[in-house]
Specification:
Length: about 160
Amino acid sequence: MSDKLEKKYRTALYLRLSRGDNDVDQRGKSESNSITNQRTLLEDYINNHKEFELVEYFIDDGWSGSNFDRPEFKNMIQAVNDEKINCIIVKDLSKFGREYIGTGTYISKMFKEKNVRFIAVNDNYDTLTANSSDSSVIMPVKNLINDSFCKDISTKVR
């Protein structure tokens, strides 16, 4: 029996919420309940998968997913470019981004080129195990729905 070394992924957890749930205050509560719940879910996930080494959290609390002009998102992409991380885990695809083309470009092109594993826990999507139909059909459809949802909410708010 051989002692095969399992690859360790230098992992970042990315958490995002468009608008706070109005429970953050200046008296000690520094993040919204949604961010806290995302953190718990993702920490439980990596604790149950020994191939992940948690390196960093990137949290955009109060930032829209309709574009990628988010401070911690930019820091995360820089960490990818600097090869500090090679795995990103999110709660679901909508937390990564709600802009259809950009989300697909990051996941299907940039991360693939840079050998970055991407996991959306609640969407059961993992680039390591996704087959071509997942990448070419399922993931784009979910991203399109997320994009449409964002535009629909924006129209209703206006």
